[in-house]
Amino acid sequence: MHRLLRGEVLMLGGFVAAAAVTIVLVMPPAIDPAAAQWTQTTSGPLTAADRDLLIKVRQAGLWEMPVGDYAQTRAESQRVKEVGKLLMQDHMKLDLMTRQVAKRLGVALPDEPNADQQRWMAQLAAESGPAFDKDFANLLRAAHGKVFTVVAAVRAGTRNSEVRKFAQEGVNFVMRHMTLLESTGLVDHNDLPEPPTPSPAPPVAMAVETRRHT
Questions:
Q1: Cα(72)–Cα(51) distance, rounded to whole angstroms?
Q2: Chain-wide mean pLDDT for the chain?
């Protein structure tokens, strides 16, 4: 009887091993969620961050072009009128570039601004004179600061050569626009988000730095 049990155990073990091998062969390998969002293109892999950049730049133009036009009739400050016109012209160029790159890379773009941008447009459309000037300068300056972090991060890390070139242009446009908005003299820098807090230096690095100065 013991011999029979031992034989049955051996046979059962063989079946389990064979089943395990079958499962490994049939089941697909686990997919990394991040890798699943990558698409291979002729200019390199296209990531979710790359797509998000194109979408955000497109949406930025969809609200900044109209409000740049608002500035021509609603602003009191001549400088605000000038800055509004320059931003509108730049975003027309940037929007064309965005749509061309998105078409080549197969990225679907939105046709309207996001909810926050639509709210800012409605606010500016209802204002005129000094109130318009102040809100125009501060709303657009804050928005450019937010999109700048996205553009710069993609420029620093994208693996796609076409996106890299586009992000480089985007960095130049956004920096120019922040400077133009600040040139109105109406930007309240105290209302802008604080720069990120630096990461603390590792203890070893701090110890080495301390020894150098002693």
A1: 33
A2: 84
